[in-house]
Design goal:
single chain, 47 residues, mainly alpha, 1 helix, elongated
C-alpha cells in the first residue's frame, strides 16, 4: 500500500512551481475577498 504522502509528491512533481504559486495566490485572493466582503456586511449591520 502506498504511503499517504506519495500522491502529494506525485502531484507536486507533475504540476511544478506554477501550479503551487497559482494555488497559493488563489487562496490569498479568496481570503482577502472574504475578509473585505465580510467586514463590509458586519459594518453595515452595526450602523
Amino acid at each position: 500500500m502506498a504511503k499517504p504522502g506519495d500522491a502529494l509528491k506525485r502531484w507536486l512533481d507533475t504540476n511544478g512551481l506554477l501550479a503551487i504559486s497559482l494555488g497559493v495566490l488563489g487562496v490569498a485572493i479568496a481570503l482577502s475577498l472574504l475578509l473585505v466582503v465580510g467586514g463590509y456586511f458586519i459594518a453595515s449591520f452595526y450602523q
